[in-house]
């Protein structure tokens, strides 16, 4: 094997590009590397842990569910059918092994991307592979991974323990029965695997299933969801149900950060129009805006931490969406505004002591301009970590460089892996801890922090802050 | 004392993170470190220098006037009352010593912020303190600082000399009597402490006191400020008065950078509506826009350098504003546009040889996109330094990285401290000079500048450019 | 000579600021330094190569055609007349030698700019000059350069070979006769110097000459350009003509990235209004938007690669424009939006296999937010290199830092010099290859890439990707 065909993870990777910084970063990382993983925001499937069955094969585990991976292949002309994904057009698709080989053949496309970093970490540390993935090693990989997946140590619950995952949160819609979480609870895993309340399906009237969802919400709760007060009571009830099954947080994925503060008469009129499917795009936006304020009010009552993930243009590729549906790698960030958008909510609840709103962004120009000044002032606001496209080495460095000087470290909440790719969770936390070590070491090297201060911060970012911000310390 | 409890300022701090750069930066900084301070834009209180009385105590000197500090404490749930600040609600407040202790206990929140850098510099170099501030050293700090403040070498005029401040500009509203500056003039300090003409109070019709201010302006000047020509004459008169007391510049704090070029009939109509309080928000904006163009016209007549500080959403926290008033750490930057906004003013005066307009921004995305290209073309335009939230190590580096390649160094104006915190002025200039040394050293290290070129630039940025841009060399 | 007066190009320039990175970058650059130059997008004058006559003098070669240079001088109060440029006001102008001396005297203004880097490279490597340009060396430079220009090795075709330019594309308007390219073709240089189809003059109805241009287009093609179908046929014909003379690409310089998908009835109505000069600004914008979609359709037919260069506010300085015309250094970038703007075009052709659209930007905030996610998904989209103001060391680093993690290296197209300054072409490619070497070395140093992977990427960026993206490999 020539050098580039050997798969190795250098112990100093991502700790810096000069020895002065690396030597400090190495000491910092040594103290955070082994800390348990807190994963307070993610999208793994709770049935994996509830049922604890083996995963099928390499492609269905690592390739087809991961839009980071197939979007890149698609951008270079590889069809989703070649990757084994079935669309509504029923055209022929590759079998899982052929799909895996197509991926392997184009693995060089991922050089420089975080997907490559995570995958190499998975291949090396989880599966013990020694060669780089390419068209020559594709078959070996496929067989090796499939074989491993049948062994007990690759069962989902075993992986949780092997990965030292102290707490992992999944995300469920408001109508979810939480059956898996009930099973987990019964098995004594209710603190290790918790849910998160994500009510977009009953709040976003631009969805085609909105009206039906309100009817289901009425059935589940026994409330009249056509009345504003009944609708709110139903939501309150669902939040309570989620909290009983471990939820400490809610999550809201909105096109914008717009909030509103309307009177209940206006709210009833909006709800009526939304329910009847006659609301304009502006009215749907206003309804979502109002609902963020209502969710804040309920958070103050029930203590659930609120998360806002705005600013993605979902399903931008119309023909791909019509054939393959949602989450196919065609969600594109938009420029976003927080200062005016959040004012109605801040005017109402910005100074409430028992309220936490964690803000995320896909528009990095808001880090230093809007988000750090907002979080550096309002007691309720905290900054979520670098999100999605920006959850990468350069992206995480920019996040720290652009938020820390105004917001400090203590208005941030540590790392979120935000993933449905279970196997990549240790890789992602490993990378985040390395990048924080590099960043802090750079400041120690220029005498901006003392090393013991940096060490405290590193441990806080890796472990203490996420527990605290998501109220997992009192869990 | 363990390491983290010793307060030390490393001689190489902020000069770089590898020895290659630090060794060059050290040589550059050695040549700028001792240069006198030019402070052409700031907000110290001129009565301090006019009256030359001792400051009261640590809290009232360092804590309660500094919105950088109390906003961070507030963001972590510490109330302004706990910091000794009295609101209109008349609730009980902490005494100055308790306030100081609350601050000290949370001093770790400032790790990574420029406030921490400036404060540690003040504690160490101005007060000679040897321990880091924390809850244990809080009382020692409080007593030590208070005692020091009573000694003659801590009188405001002594500090000016001790800090080697060659010129400092304060900022006064258009209606100010400049009594302090008259006293300073009489005492022979009229060149060391100068004023700046800031007419927002008589130009911004969104202020509740605008109409009353126009009446006061009429009284002071004997002009009819209800007539457009009388209003302009009154402003011209006040500019002359300020210039006689040392002003070489005007300053304009507007929500946007919008300018306009209306005919005098339109101007009279707008003035009428603004005066009567019936102008819409758009009309108020148009009036401010027109007034920027008028101020430019007067600058061409009287030679005062014009400064524009746009893009802050002031007093974003409504309840804090109603209880505690302005400047309570809730000013949040907005995305801003310069290219279209400045066109009317540039069309009229952009090529005038006797005109300087210094632009500032809180939206860093405009550095490379709009500001550097504008300043790299228009003879009248110069770029002010990294402002407010961005006056920090990473912020100043981004400013140089993003403006220099298009605007060069010589379309910038050196450093502004922009502070009301007198004691921090040397700390701020020290930091700015270190960061410029680091930046220039990085370019020398990659053979982009020769070291003697970098040295000339370093000295220009620290001393010659601010004198020249603000016309202090002909002062 | 003191150090700063010696003109030297350090062999390690722009390879990094610490030895760890420089030593790797040196090895990478050694493998790309000598690769032939592919220049697929530029603005040299094809008549230079067709006629192969000597250039006139230093000023007319290097100074007056280069808006990067005279805009900086203008920004510091040097008039265009002092630089020898004649306006419509017929005021007296400096002779070429005086103009050169004015430039030389202010050469320090360019410290830190890419113009300085390129010029020093030209002075040193092309002309063999040993002293830095300044007022003392001005005359020596002027005589030396003028003398050199008369020698055969400075003839345009000699320079092409000396510079190892394998392919260079010029840019011509839709009405151009391509006379020079016909001559070049006859001389066997038709593959080395190719044209690019730039139809802005017959697509942008905001131009004062638009209606006349449509009439000329009708004359040239024999089509009825007042009919929508005739107009499209005429464009198709011209594209074919350009392709026959070597064009592999089209280029579109629009104020925004807006696209549209109208029916042919709407198109005919818009064309009518535009032709008659009665279209509103919005209708002109909509017409341009529609024409981008039409050009994409034709690209799918004829295989020409499409390039979009949006987001410049052209001729911002009104008085300079009225006296000196276009391209006088007063084009200023604007904030720009791609996600919504490109949707109509992407909905129609985004998944076409035989379509390439290369996107450029002047708004760096779109790199990570919009462009990398778009290019990392759509098969037709590729990212052009850092453009214009951002074609600089820091700008190119930001481009890689902000695009690579989402788009990878293989959704980019290598370097474009985009220049009309023939002599600076090797300087620009040299700089781009050095910066890519530095960037890649930084990632090797932190064990993010293996060195052999970085080497492959470096060679791809320097040579293979531009050939492939612009279809020059099948040329």
Architecture blueprint of SSEs:
Three copies of one chain form a homotrimer.
Chain A: H1 19-32, E1 37-39, H2 46-51, H3 58-63, H4 67-75, H5 96-105, H6 114-126, H7 138-149, H8 156-162, E2 165-169, E3 172-173, H9 179-186, E4 193-194, E5 197-198, H10 210-221, H11 228-244, E6 249-252, H12 264-276, H13 281-302, E7 305-308, E8 312-313, H14 318-324, E9 332-333, H15 343-349, E10 357-359, H16 365-375, E11 381-383, H17 393-407, H18 425-445, H19 451-469
Parallel strand pairs in A: 1-2, 2-4, 3-5, 6-7, 7-10, 10-11
Antiparallel strand pairs in A: 8-9
Helix pairs in contact in A: 1-18, 1-19, 6-18, 10-11, 12-13, 13-15, 16-17, 17-18, 18-19
Characterise this structure:
Three copies of one chain form a homotrimer. Chain A is of the alpha/beta class and 475 residues long. The first copy, chain A, has two domains: 3-53 and 156-469, Alpha-Beta Barrel (TIM Barrel), CATH 3.20.20.140; 54-154, uronate isomerase, domain 2, chain A, CATH 1.10.2020.10. In chain A, 48% of the residues lie in helices and 7% in strands. Chain A has 19 helices and eleven strands. The first copy, chain A, has helices at 19-32, 46-51, 58-63, 67-75, 96-105, 114-126, 138-149, 156-162, 179-186, 210-221, 228-244, 264-276, 281-302, 318-324, 343-349, 365-375, 393-407, 425-445, 451-469, and strands at 37-39, 165-169, 172-173, 193-194, 197-198, 249-252, 305-308, 312-313, 332-333, 357-359, 381-383. In chain A, the strands form four sheets. Chain A has a four-stranded parallel sheet, with helices on one face. A three-stranded parallel sheet of chain A has the order 1-2-4. In chain A, helix 16 links the parallel strand 10 and strand 11 (381-383). In chain A, helix 12 packs across helix 13. The longest helix of chain A has 22 residues, at 281-302. The mean pLDDT of chain A is 97. Chains in contact: A-B, A-C, B-C. At the A-B interface, helix 15, helix 16, helix 17, helix 18 and helix 19 of A face helix 4, helix 14, strand 9 and helix 17 of B.
């Amino acid at each position: 094997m020539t050098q580039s065909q050997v798969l190795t993870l250098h112990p100093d990777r991502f700790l810096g590009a000069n020895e002065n910084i690396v030597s400090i970063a190495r000491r910092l990382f040594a103290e955070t590397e082994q800390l348990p993983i807190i994963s307070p925001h993610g999208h793994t499937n709770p049935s994996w842990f509830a049922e604890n069955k083996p995963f099928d094969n390499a492609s269905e585990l690592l390739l087809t569910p991961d839009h980071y991976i197939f979007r890149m292949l698609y951008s270079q002309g590889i069809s989703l059918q070649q990757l084994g994904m079935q669309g509504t057009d029923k055209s022929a698709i590759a079998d899982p092994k052929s799909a895996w080989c197509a991926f392997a053949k184009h693995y060089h496309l991922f050089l420089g991307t975080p997907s490559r970093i995570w995958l190499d970490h998975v291949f090396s540390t989880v599966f013990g592979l020694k060669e780089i993935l390419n068209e020559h090693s594709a078959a070996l990989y496929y067989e090796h991974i499939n074989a491993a997946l049948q062994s007990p140590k690759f069962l989902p619950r075993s992986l949780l323990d092997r990965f030292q995952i102290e707490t992992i949160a999944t995300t469920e819609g408001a109508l979810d029965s939480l059956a898996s979480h009930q099973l987990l609870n019964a098995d004594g895993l209710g603190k290790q695997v918790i849910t998160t309340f994500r009510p977009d399906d009953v709040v976003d009237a631009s969805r085609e299933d909105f009206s039906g969802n309100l009817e289901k919400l009425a059935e589940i709760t026994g409330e009249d969801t056509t009345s504003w007060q009944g609708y709110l009571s139903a939501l309150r009830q669902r939040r309570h149900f989620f909290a009983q099954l471990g939820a400490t947080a809610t999550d809201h994925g909105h096109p914008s950060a717009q909030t509103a503060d309307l009177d209940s008469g206006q709210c009833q009129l909006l709800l009526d129009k939304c329910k009847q499917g006659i609301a304009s795009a502006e009215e749907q936006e206003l309804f979502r805006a109002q609902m963020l304020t209502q969710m804040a009010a309920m958070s103050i009552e029930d203590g659930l931490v609120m998360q806002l993930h705005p600013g993605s243009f979902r399903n931008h590729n119309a023909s791909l969406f019509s054939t393959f549906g949602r989450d196919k790698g065609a969600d594109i960030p938009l420029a976003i505004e927080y200062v005016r958008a959040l004012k109605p909510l801040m005017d109402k609840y910005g100074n409430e002591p028992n309220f936490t709103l964690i803000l995320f962004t896909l528009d990095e120009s808001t880090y230093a301009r809007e988000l750090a000044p907002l979080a550096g002032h309002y007691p309720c606001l905290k900054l979520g970590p670098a999100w999605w496209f920006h959850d990468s080495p350069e992206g995480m460095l920019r996040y720290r460089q652009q938020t820390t000087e105004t917001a400090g470290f203590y208005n941030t909440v540590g790392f979120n892996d935000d993933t449905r790719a279970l196997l990549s969770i240790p890789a992602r936390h490993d990378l985040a801890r390395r990048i924080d070590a590099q960043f802090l070491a750079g400041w120690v090297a220029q005498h901006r922090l003392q090393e013991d201060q940096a060490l405290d911060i590193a441990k806080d970012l890796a472990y203490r802050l996420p527990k605290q911000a998501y109220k997992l310390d009192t869990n």
